[in-house]
Write a structure and sequence with these properties.
- This protein has 338 residues and is an alpha+beta fold.
- 34% of the residues lie in helices and 28% in strands.
- It has a seven-stranded mixed sheet with strand order 1-2-3-6-7-16-8, sandwiched between helices. The protein has a seven-stranded mixed sheet with strand order 10-11-12-13-14-9-15. A two-stranded antiparallel ribbon has the order 4-5.
- It starts with a strand and ends with a helix.
Length: 338
């Protein structure tokens, strides 16, 4: 039999994972995370995994993830392109290109507005219409600067218990993210299934290195923070946070407590994974905490349906892309990727 491209069949998950492992060289624990993140994704359907098959064996694959995202005042349909790979024994013969072309054809057929990918080989995707977009993915500040802030607001802090509190966390995120261009639109089933997938942030879980904190005022939760401080990472990574609209200063209280705990372990720098004009950044500036943006390369975008551009209030595709990646909250694809 020759090479052909089709959707994954339900009994082929292990065959897909075997090809993934050969292509990326991941260990078994990492492969288990990939398996969980795939089969427990609330939007997973086998046809979203496009596979190239030769003589009954999966030798190439592309995964299409469903990630609706705010753009201006509306939610657009964003397709995350990930797990683009070919088995080492079959590379260099164009099989990967054929599978990716098939995936992009379906992205357009399914009426996605945007396709997004992170990659170390931008030239490969540029040939298929993707544009590279350097994006601010986070901001660094000194942990000591956070510790020294003078705060007057009185919030009560408590550990974060995701399984008991996720509906409240979801409500806070929904309020915080509403109409913030670039932030993912998360339905309740996203929150319900998140612990089962591989992208669950440390701090929401009880794993070593995770730190989860919540802030209350008058008995009502108004903000939350999830962070990780692992030995191999030289900074405290604040990977997820949100606050009610009337309580941006609650984030300062949470950041200060997180910094204090981090400093006790000898840490120095804090990385906030947020965009360039999040309210907390202005509050840090007002308190003279030096904040430095961190720009990452390798993020690429293809606009597959242009109808949303003017409907979202943008004058052109270039303006829309500029707003997606340099607005108050750029797309945080590293967080909600695989």
């Amino acid at each position: 039999m020759g090479f052909r491209v089709r959707g994954l069949q339900r009994d082929e998950v292990e065959g897909f994972l075997a090809c993934f492992q050969a292509a990326f060289g991941v260990d078994d624990p990492s492969l288990s995370i990939i398996r969980n993140s795939l089969v427990n994704d609330p939007y997973f359907r086998p046809e979203r995994v496009r596979v190239g098959v030769m003589d009954g064996q999966i030798i190439s694959h592309v995964v299409i993830l469903h990630r609706p995202t705010w753009a201006g005042s509306q939610v657009i349909e964003l397709a995350g392109i990930t797990a683009v790979a070919t088995h080492p024994d079959y590379q260099g013969r164009g099989y990967g290109t054929r599978v990716l072309r098939d995936a992009l054809k379906l992205v357009r057929r399914w009426k996605y507005d945007v396709a997004l990918v992170t990659t170390r080989v931008p030239g490969f995707f540029a040939r298929l219409g993707f544009l590279e977009v350097p994006a601010v993915i986070g901001h660094q500040c000194p942990a000591r600067g956070l510790e020294r802030m003078r705060l007057s607001a009185e919030y009560q802090l408590a550990p974060l218990d995701y399984h008991q509190q996720w509906p409240t966390l979801a409500a806070i995120y929904r309020e915080y993210s509403h109409q913030r261009t670039g932030m993912q639109y998360r339905e309740d089933r996203f929150w319900e299934t998140w612990p089962l997938r591989g992208t669950f942030p440390l701090g929401f879980s009880n794993e070593i290195g995770g730190m989860g904190l919540t802030a209350f005022l008058g008995g009502q939760m108004v903000a939350y923070l999830a962070a990780q401080m692992l030995p191999e990472i030289p900074h405290l990574s604040v990977t997820e946070f949100a606050h009610a609209n009337d309580h941006p200063e609650a984030m300062l209280v949470l950041l200060q407590e997180a910094a204090r705990r981090f400093l006790q372990r000898g840490g120095r720098r804090v990385m906030l994974y947020t965009g360039g004009a999040a309210p907390v950044l202005k509050l840090l500036e007002d308190r003279e905490v030096p904040v430095e943006g961190h720009v990452a390369q390798g993020l690429m975008i293809a606009v597959t349906n242009r109808k949303w551009v003017r409907a979202s209030g943008f004058g052109s595709v270039d303006e829309a892309i500029q707003n997606l990646f340099h607005s108050a909250i750029p797309v945080m694809w590293h967080r909600d990727g695989y």
